[in-house]
Write a structure and sequence with these properties.
The protein is of the alpha/beta class. It is built from 6 helices and 7 strands. α6 links the parallel β6 and β7. 17% of the residues are buried. The N terminus is likely disordered.
């Protein structure tokens, strides 16, 4: 998110919860212009920022408490002003182990798709005990696929989405 002091936010609803978090931040930060750029991952987003007309803007990085340092490191190295704000915390929901166990007692998937490294961490113990050895575990991005390998070793076949969207699965 880049902010300036004039104009209107114009946040598009297609960005869902992320857009809502941006809007809440802008409302409280007295910012009235917002630029939203969408990349497939942190590296591609940095490439877009570095090669765009938005390079000279100052940026706000709304992140979770487990965000990788790719965006801050890359933008700071390129002398682009960035302020990181932690807007959410990642933690497992209570009872998730029991719910997942109940599902897997009656259902045997062929694929499991993970959207975040924390999703892998929070479910690895249960999944290791209940999944067949021929199940394919898919990471939505490189960081998630790396966490799958770290959590499960070579127990399962692991894949990575070509692009982080439904067609990439």
């Amino acid at each position: 998110v880049s902010t300036q002091s004039t104009g209107s936010s114009g946040i598009n609803a297609e960005y869902g919860a992320s857009a809502a978090a941006v809007q809440r931040f802008l409302d409280t930060a007295n910012c009235s212009t917002c630029v939203i750029l969408r990349g497939h991952n942190a590296e591609s987003l940095c490439e877009i920022i570095l090669s765009s007309e938005h390079r000279n803007l100052s940026w706000v990085f709304l992140a979770g408490d487990r965000a990788l340092d790719i965006i801050p490191t890359t933008l700071h190295a390129n002398k682009i002003q960035l302020h990181q704000v932690t807007v959410y915390s990642i933690h497992p929901l209570s009872g998730v182990t029991g719910k997942l166990t109940d599902i897997l007692d009656d259902f045997s998937p062929d694929f499991v798709v993970f959207f975040s490294p924390s999703g892998v961490q929070f479910t690895a113990d249960v999944l290791s005990k209940h999944l067949r050895s021929d199940v394919v575990l898919i990471g939505f991005g490189k960081s998630t696929a790396k966490q799958i390998v770290e959590s499960f070793g070579d127990k399962f076949l692991v894949g990575t989405c070509k692009t982080p969207d439904p067609s990439g699965v």
